[in-house]
Design goal:
The protein has four domains: 91 residues, Phosphorylase Kinase, domain 1 (2-Layer Sandwich), CATH 3.30.200.20; 158 residues, Transferase(Phosphotransferase) domain 1 (Transferase(Phosphotransferase), domain 1, Orthogonal Bundle), CATH 1.10.510.10; 74 residues; 115 residues, Alpha Horseshoe (Serine Threonine Protein Phosphatase 5, Tetratricopeptide repeat). The protein has 20 helices and seven strands. A hairpin with a 3-residue loop joins β1 and β2.
Length: 491
């Protein structure tokens, strides 16, 4: 689109359109000049389809004003939000370095990937402290400043999209299937730990070149987030698996509680893992260079231009383009470096323990999900199996019919859930009424949850819950009708 065409299509007082930056299903983005302050901004103009939805526009303005109050180096700053003649817009700082999705087309080193993950986590930690959840953390929403710092964009829009009307219109849960958390796929209420799951999925893709779960069908991808084991990293970067495991734990309470906890665990792993030795060596080099430059600056109160140029040139190869915070704090006493090195030497034979971070055991099942016809036999006698399954049901389904985490121990994890345990009881005793009753109760629970999701407009959530119910009672006609007719998966 030419500048002339853009000027004709977008006329927002106080902003002069310079050029188009891109277009998507939700909005068009322009580089514009905010005339009152003579500064360039990224002007995001909502699509006419969204602008015609009153519920979306009201929430967009409300949430946009909330996120405009967020001020953090790893979050895009929102300057202005409003509407003019039915055109809804958001003006935010212009970030010139492109998106992470664009950078993923090039080879990224492990340190660079961890830099991005840490930056995003720090931004999320701040936003979550302020009560704001992003809901759509993905490479396309991560931008880069000129110095290489990663920043997260589009908080307000993601939350505004999370409404009944918009969900119905989209025909899906809010979020991008490749990065959505299990609770988001089920249309449950989410908190900051859902964003951390999405960060884990994004980090996995950066490290491997492909998303953790993939399919040509978005519904299938969402289902895989709910039911499939956490994917394994290739051997070259397998030392980072504990971070992926805790970011992508199926249950929110098993994940890092905050972005800050993830950063602490990341730094601890880099400080102790043998595979990170090259990073620690690079850290020492940068620290020595910084210390040498500091000595030169002190000893030569008025250095000659030539002397300063020579010192800078000599250090150039060791100095990174971007000064990073890492585990390696770049400016610090050399004595601290020695102390850390000594501590690391003493701890080399000690397994990694992350202080104050909930421990998550690595799943025993690391291969592809076990096919139904090869399901593992669950050991135990009938009485002990029933006791275990009944306990799982009591934990997941409280008397009011509500559950803090839908499906906790009802249908997952594989080999240790109420449905599979009841089914094992029926293999031992095909007429066991207690097992049949337990399966019926689970099917009732999932059906009620599926209908509630459908009432909220979440077709994907409805379908996933109906699928879970059919695991308990495959022949239940009402669940089959939900899955096939009332909330079918996208074709």
């Amino acid at each position: 689109m030419s500048v002339t065409q853009v000027l004709k299509s977008v006329d927002i007082p106080g902003y002069r359109i310079l050029r188009s930056l891109g277009e998507g299903g939700m909005a068009s983005v322009y580089l514009a000049l905010q005339e009152s302050l003579d500064r360039e901004v990224a002007l995001k103009v909502m699509s006419p389809t969204l602008a015609a939805n009153a519920e979306f526009t009201d929430r967009f303005l409300k949430e946009g004003r909330l996120t405009a109050k967020l001020s953090h180096p790893n979050l895009v700053t929102v300057y202005d939000i409003g509407q003019h003649d039915g055109v809804y817009y958001l003006a935010q700082e212009f970030i010139p370095g492109g998106t992470l999705r664009e950078h993923m087309d090039k080879s990224m080193s492990v340190p660079a990937i961890l830099d991005v993950a840490r930056d995003v986590a720090l931004g999320l930690a701040y936003a979550h402290e302020k009560g704001v959840v992003h809901r759509d953390v993905k490479p396309g929403n991560v931008l880069f400043r000129a110095n290489g710092t990663a920043v997260l964009a589009d908080f307000g829009i993601a939350k505004a999209m999370n409404s009944n009307t918009m969900a119905t219109q989209a025909g899906n849960s809010i979020g991008t299937p490749h990065y959505m958390s299990p609770e988001q796929a089920r249309a449950e209420k989410v908190d900051g730990r859902s964003d951390l799951y999405s960060l884990g999925a994004m980090m996995f893709e950066l490290l491997t070149g492909g998303p953790p779960y993939d399919s040509s069908d978005p519904y299938t991808i969402a289902l895989m987030h709910v039911t499939h084991p956490i994917p394994r990293l290739p051997q070259k970067v397998a030392w980072l698996q504990p971070l992926i495991d805790q970011l992508m734990a199926k249950l929110p309470e098993a994940r890092f509680r905050t972005g800050d906890e993830f950063v602490a665990a990341c730094d601890k792993l880099i400080a102790t893992a043998p595979e990170a030795k090259a990073m620690r060596d690079a850290q020492s080099t940068r620290k020595r260079t910084a210390a040498r430059l500091a000595v030169v600056a002190v000893d030569q109160a008025a250095p000659t231009q030539r002397g300063l140029a020579v010192e800078t040139e000599a250090a150039g190869a060791a100095l990174p383009t971007r000064t990073r915070p890492w585990v390696w704090v770049l400016v610090g006493p050399l004595l601290l470096v020695v102390a850390v090195a000594g501590w690391a030497l003493l701890r080399r034979s000690t397994p990694l323990v992350v202080t104050d971070v909930p421990a998550v055991p690595v799943p025993a099942e690391v291969a592809e999900p076990t096919p139904v016809d090869m399901a593992p036999v669950i050991e135990g006698d009938i009485d002990s199996l029933l006791a275990k399954a009944n306990a799982y049901v009591r934990e997941a389904i409280v008397p009011s019919g509500e559950s803090t985490v839908v499906g906790r121990k009802l249908s997952s994890p594989p080999g240790d859930n109420a449905i599979e345990i009841y089914q094992q009881v029926l293999r031992l005793d095909p007429q066991n009424d207690a097992a049949r009753s337990g399966l019926a109760r689970i099917a009732d629970f999932y059906e009620s949850k599926a209908r509630a999701a459908l009432d909220r407009g979440s077709v994907t959530g409805c379908n996933l819950l109906a699928e879970s119910g059919l695991l308990a009672e495959p022949e239940r006609a009402s669940l089959q009708a939900l899955r096939e007719r009332e909330c079918p998966p996208p074709r």
